[in-house]
Amino acid sequence: MSKATLNTDTVHRVGFLDKASLHIPILRILQADGTTYETAVLPVIDEALATKIYDTCVFTRVLDERMLGAQRQGRISFYMTCTGEEAAIVGSVAALDQGDVILAQYREHAALRYRGFTTEQFMNQMFSNEKDLGKGRQMPIHYGCAALNYQTISSPLATQIPQATGVGYSLKMQGKRNVAVCYFGEGAASEGDFHAGLNMAAVLKCPVIFFCRNNGYAISTPTEEQFAGNGIASRGVGYGMHTIRVDGNDMLAVLAATQQARAYAIEHNVPVLIEAMTYRLGAHSSSDDPSGYRSKDEEAKWQQHDPVKRFKLWLINKGWLAEADDVKLHEQYREEVLAAVKVAEKIPVPMLDEIIEDVYDKPTPALKKQLSDLKEHIKKYPQAYPKSAGRL
Question: Is this structure's pTM higher than 0.85?
């Protein structure tokens, strides 16, 4: 064993370590009333950045509200909100460079919005129409945008974690001063891909920020039934990474931690793990009913830690936001999102021939045969495929 990597201290009596042996503090800067702690060191932030952060939060809240309603009306098939986790997502993406590559899980659409994804682009993806960047092949909210360095989301848990290691390694090999940023929940950290990805990143010294949203539940499974260790942060230490645990409902704490994590990762070409302690205020998805596994009292308690409200109070205290302007902003986005829904749902789905494109350089004979069979099937049962029947 290498003495360079292992502690060579010796003892002469048996003594075990446990999860209490590693003390992991939680970074907090912003209090519930919108004031900062007396000894807190603030992140680099000015009025323009703060305003963009809040604008992104408001848009995301409105989008979540409207699109969950659209799903209930049967206009889209599926939806997931990031309600309650906005500080973790927006606070972290605001610390990044546009050239940093994001590998998201599925609750980070606020990060995509922050980078410039338009309301129309959100709608086109969710309605799987012919203007969708993914050509209508993904479930709603499975976004991807090459122009914004936001890699396409996949449903299986944790696949993006080892991929992020590869992206970070590539950035280092190209000599770019950028990082890969990988978002995932604490439930995904139970997958094997988590351990493989983090270990590779640490050993290969890849500039990756692994950002864990510890929101209390892996769908319906609470954290105490997921792991017995000291959260996810202790695992970063175990893999030899710089690690920090932050209040995931504190916009300024998340921003500060991510700013410094990015600087360290680039300077030393190494990964960093951030564990953001937060709470999913909404359901896991539109297919989930959280009343079956958590109480209304628990939800009400966490409503008092609403990250958007806390940041709003800070903005008001700074004189950077007025209540009247906040009301107008919400109204503006409600109208904008509703108008975009009405347009996007009327745009036809992609032509059926596109379904075999982008698989290989040229469609293979087998794919062409499958497409032909599919067309014949749809022609035979057009009533079962009302959208596709007219796009043959």
Answer: yes
